[in-house]
Write a structure and sequence with these properties.
The protein is mainly beta and 86 residues long. Strands 3-6-7 form a 3-stranded antiparallel beta sheet. It has a domain of 54 residues. It starts with a strand and ends in a 10-residue tail after the last helix. The protein is built from 1 helix and 7 strands; from the N terminus they run βββββββα.
Length: 86
């Protein structure tokens, strides 16, 4: 088993040479998302997670739900519908 440790500066260290990296892009898979008007708790595949007011609740391709911080959502997703805020 290869052990990869994250260091405080955000880099990683590994005692074993890792395979060369290749570039990949996420497939454009439409997901159901909801901007939550208040703080919430949701059961995820990793356990209970909390979201803040304004965070997004995402339903994945297998029906799993998870919160996404509003700032991370803005950097990662484009909303397809124009219903946001309605």
């Amino acid at each position: 088993m290869i052990e990869i440790k994250r260091l405080p500066d955000g880099s990683h260290e590994c005692a074993t040479a890792l395979p060369d990296a290749v570039r990949a892009v996420k497939k454009p898979i439409p997901l159901d998302v909801r901007r939550m008007p208040e703080a919430f708790v949701v059961e995820t595949m990793e356990g209970r997670m909390q979201g803040k007011a304004g965070d997004w609740l995402i339903t994945g391709i297998d029906g799993e739900m998870y919160p996404c911080d509003a700032a991370i959502f803005a950097k990662t997703y484009d909303v397809l519908d124009d219903l946001v805020g309605q």
